[in-house]
Amino acid sequence: MAFSYSLFLVLLLIFPGLCFWAGWRAGERTDFLSPSPDRPNSTLTLFMVVFGTIVGHLLGTGFFALQTAWCQTTGFCVGVGFDPNIYRALLRGASDARGATDFALEAWLLAMLLIGVVTGVVAQWLVQRDAVSGKTDPIAFGWLNPAVQAVKKGDSFVVAYVLTKTSHDGFIVAYEGTVQQLALDEDQSIKLVILNDVDRFLVKISESGLDRVDTSSTPITQLQVTAAEIANVALEVVQAPAADVEAVAQEDAAERS
Question: Which residue windows are transmembrane per the record (predicted)?
Answer without folding.
Answer: 6-24, 44-66, 107-127
